[in-house]
Amino acid sequence: MFDSPDSITLLSTNTQLVLWLLVGVIAWSSVDKALYKSLINTPARQTGVFSCVIVFCILWQIKAGILPGLELHILGVTAVTLVLGWRFALLSATLASALLIAFEQLSVAQLPLHLLLTAYLPILFSYSVFVICYNLLPRHFFIYIFICSFLCAAFASCVKIISISAFYYFTGYYNWYELSENYLYLCAIIWFPEAMLNGMAISILITYRPHWVKTFYDKDYLDS
Fold first, then answer.
1. What average pLDDT does this structure show over 4-17?
2. Whole-prediction pTM value?
């Protein structure tokens, strides 16, 4: 996330430990032996996961920002979560982050914060929205596209910006003025392209390749 090692003071050891602990807990909770066994035995699933890894890598390295650590880019996590489910979405995000490290787009010191707030939190948020909509709202084609994909992606991008701002504010790296003037207002800019990209991707997939989308159930969304 940081533009250079000297651009901002590295996180304290205690903060790093807490971040790694949170990342570890989330990653461990996503492990399902049966699901991972099916991944190993199913080439089509492997192709899906690694395709999403490449998508993440492309999206996450195209970024802009004014202050170090406060970067703006398309996440793409909502569409990937709907396609793969939250467990494989977390796996794809983790592998993509490893590739970014390999290509020197991300450092190991930046990894836990990047994983937690850029990947894991938006993925869990996106899947939670899907579960809530699936259980509480009518299972309708339009609701799946507009709420689970379009609106959810818009809010996920804002969740990422707000959570990173809160982290830097409470750890004392930036004050409120710096955050509000240089980063928080970007929520108003990024939500629409994020929503459009995810919404269009899911619309195309469930139209032409609905069997690729794990969370889209024909009997629920097409027969209603």
1. 62
2. 0.92
